[in-house]
Design goal:
Largest sheet: 7 strands, antiparallel
Low-confidence stretches: 1-5, 7-16
Number of helices: 11
Helix content: 40-55%
Strand content: 15-25%
Structural class: alpha+beta
Number of strands: 10
Length: about 300
């Protein structure tokens, strides 16, 4: 039987790439600013008690927020709520990696909630924070968001907090957003469980074109199939089969938008082995057939 790398605890990034050295991190009051490149040890399926505003400034790839699986590119801005698991995995990264991929703001709930009790103006932010339990992607806000990140990074004290509030106010008033996760999943605290989740997600993401067996993965993790299935659904919000299908369909969407491959070729290229099943699963996930998806994409993105 093939020995999978999952048995050794697969990392979320390519093992031959070396992480860039530069990383910046600073705290000031309730606001934690962080930026880093890719690959980086911080890039993994994880969660924390703080809210997180996460801006991608370089590379494209796949994001995982709760039970949501989607694509990201530069300018991608997401707010995740406390304990909502998330990860961004880049693809087509140069061998030397990239020095700056992520700009991040983390902040706690209690200080804002307590302040809102005595400062009525801050109550405007509370509905935004409530929505973030599902993960919020803000659309067409990347350039403006980066300017806010830079102002917050370059200031401190009351000035920094003022920039932060102005940023949050803009997001709270925006109607150009979408909620990501269908469920308010809360992940585990222990590193051993998070490492197992990372190993599984990384293996699927890297090998989606090949046959992927839940039975083999369960054996590699020392679990029965039924225990593995329960573990996978509890930690990702998806059944194993649905998760693999969604990974493949997301890749199919890229190919349908960016190439002129026949739908049949796309089907096999992303790991499906039956065109009828591919069409059925695509319709379930996207609400349209692959051909209709391409037609709509041409109308939206074409010249």
């Amino acid at each position: 039987m093939e020995v999978l790398p999952i048995a050794r605890g697969v990392e979320t990034q390519r093992p031959h790439a070396k992480p860039p050295v530069i990383e910046r991190e600073n705290y000031d009051g309730i606001i934690h600013y962080l930026e880093h490149g890719y690959p980086n040890p911080r890039v993994r399926w994880h969660c924390h008690d703080e809210y997180e505003l996460h801006l991608i400034v370089s590379t494209s790839g796949r994001l995982f927020v709760g039970d949501y699986i989607g694509e990201f590119s530069p300018g991608h801005l997401v707010l995740t709520g406390p304990r909502l698991p998330h990860n961004w995995i880049s693809s087509s990264v140069p061998e030397e990696g990239v020095v700056l991929r992520d700009m991040i703001l983390q902040f706690a709930h209690d200080p804002l909630e307590q302040a809102a009790k005595s400062i009525p103006e801050l109550r405007e932010l509370l509905p935004l924070l409530e929505r973030s339990t599902y993960g919020i992607e803000f659309l067409d806000f990347g350039a403006e968001a980066e300017a806010y990140f830079l102002r917050i990074r370059g200031s401190h004290g009351a000035e920094r907090f003022a920039h932060f509030l102005q940023f949050m106010c803009q997001l709270a008033r925006s109607s150009n957003y979408r909620l990501l996760s269908n469920a308010t999943i809360r992940s585990f605290d222990d590193e051993a469980t998070l490492a197992k989740v990372n190993a599984v997600l990384s293996y699927i993401t890297e090998n989606y074109r090949d046959p992927i067996s839940a039975e083999v993965l369960a054996e590699q993790m020392g679990m029965s199939l039924s225990k593995f299935s329960r573990f996978f659904r509890k930690t990702t919000g998806n059944s194993f089969t649905d998760f693999v299908s969604r990974i493949r369909i997301n890749k199919a969407c890229q190919l349908l938008m960016n190439t002129d491959q026949y739908v049949t070729n796309v089907c096999y290229d992303v790991g499906f082995h039956n065109v009828a099943n591919f069409n059925r699963r695509f319709l379930q996930v996207k609400g349209v057939t692959p051909k209709e998806f391409r037609r709509q994409s041409d109308g939206r993105f074409g010249a």
